[in-house]
Every structure is written in C-alpha cells, then in structure tokens.
C-alpha cells in the first residue's frame, strides 16, 4: 500500500509547510495570520495541513519570543552578483559598526552570506532556524519581493537598503536618489557634459543612484547617461572597467561610480589608459569609505553615514523585538568634494 506522502513529512517551520502546500512561505504566514489577502480555499488548505502536522499559527515567532538566544542574525543576499565578497570595504565597514552596536546592547552576531539562486528559501530558513532573536538584512539585492513576503509574517527584521513608497519591510538607508543627484550636479559643475554611470543597476540602491543622476542630466539638457554595467567582485570589475573605457572613454568626460570601490578601480584603469583625472575625466564615487581619502588623487564622493545607519538598524530592531511597529529611517547623503572633480 502507498502511504500518504503528507504523513511522512516533518514540518519544522513555515518553509516546510509552504513546500507541502505548494505555496510561498509568505502566503503561509498570511494565511496563518488570518489575512484576507489569501483566498479562502488556499487558507483552509494551509490551516488543515498545519493542524495535521501540529504546526501552530505563529509558532516560529512565538518560539523566538519565549526562547531568547541573545543572537541577532545578519544576512547578506547576493542575488545581483554572486561573486561579490563580504570582504568588500562597504560590508566590512557596516559590519564593524553593527558588531559594536549589538555588543553594546548585549547581543552576539551571526553572519550569513547567501546566494538566493541556490536557496530560494534563504530568509525563511534563517529566521525559522531557532538560532536568532531577529534579523538584519544588508542590502535588498534583487530580493525585494522575497523580503516583502517575509515581512508580512515576521516582525523582528530590519533591512539596510533603499526605501520605496508603500513598501512593507522596515528599512534603514541613505536617500540614494538624492545622492545620485548630488554626484551628477558636482560632475557637471566641474565641467563634465557627457556622463556615464559605472555599476549594475539591477541592485535597488544602485538603480536609485543612477535615477537621481539621470534626473539632473535631463534637467540640464544633457544627453542620457550611459550605463556601464560592472560586477562588484574585484576579479571581474577591473577587467570590465578596462573594457568599458576602451569602448567608451572617447564618448564621455564624467563618470559616476556606484561605489567608492568601483571608483578606485576605475581610477587605476584610467591611469593605465593615460587618461588624466580630473583633467580629461571627472570622477565621483558613493559611500565615503576610507579608501576615498587614500586614492591618488583623493576621490570626490557622496557620503552616507554608515555609523549612524548601524545605530539605526539596531535601534529599530530592538524596538521591533519589543513589539513596536517602526517606520523606516532614511538618512541624508552629503557631497564630499575632493580632487577628482
């Protein structure tokens, strides 16, 4: 006799129940919370499966509340660039500040780097592991919808990223569109009239920076900004930048790099091509990492207050752990003019 498959499945978390029901974890969260967004037939199926397997509504969240671990999970999704390294200067700077803030509040930090294409349930699996009290996601990558789904059923989560009107997950981050405007305004004020954006605009934060720069180019009556798609992994970025410059350098006189790391690599390649900065090419970055002061010449950039961002992430997460509903925190960017413009 064939044994009913459902009786052989162990349901430990929302991800397991979602797989059994053939729906997303977010749909399970909403169904068990009784939200009207889930149609009646689907909700009844999920509730029946939950009863059959002894899975109580909000079991995961209530379990975390009862059994504190003293650990906050920090996860970095790399859906947009699977070869990007956590040793990237931005990640290391933010992680350092986060570790300081969490330690001050009596928490340990558990770090995970994930490639979503290899694990579609990366976030549900982490929060359902029972090993953490709450989670900080660093960057939305190309995972906005996945994060939105989880936010519907899981409260103690805060995300470093770009804020979009109407989104459901709580974000801390810089006003990236405004930062892009500041960078473009500076490049244009320095004499650039044919701009390029260096970076991958599939990442939400980078897309907003590009859009802000394009706002200014359009307002000033300049040609559309050329995009130079570039990975963030150092082994690929330098080669791609060299290829972009070989093909496009004669068409542009100003480059806005999505990050200071990309700007520094670009500066090296410009020097190798014999292109003077800022004489022949104006260059601006984004972040104001320590490397921006160390390049030759020092880099004009848009500063985001990473230390304040880390404080905001931890403060909002602790408030959400206490049951509060919190608004997102959008930090103002600041233009830092140095010698590349």
From TrEMBL:
Q: CDD domains of this UniProt entry? A: HTH_LacI
Gene3D superfamilies, sorted: 3.40.50.2300, lambda repressor-like DNA-binding domains
**What keywords does the record list, in alphabetical order?**
DNA-binding, Transcription, Transcription regulation
Q: Where is the HTH lacI-type domain?
A: 12-66
Supply the SUPFAM superfamilies for this chain: lambda repressor-like DNA-binding domains (SSF47413), Periplasmic binding protein-like I (SSF53822)
Q: Name one GO molecular function term.
A: DNA binding
Protein name as annotated: DNA-binding LacI/PurR family transcriptional regulator
The scientific name of the source species is: Erythrobacter ramosus
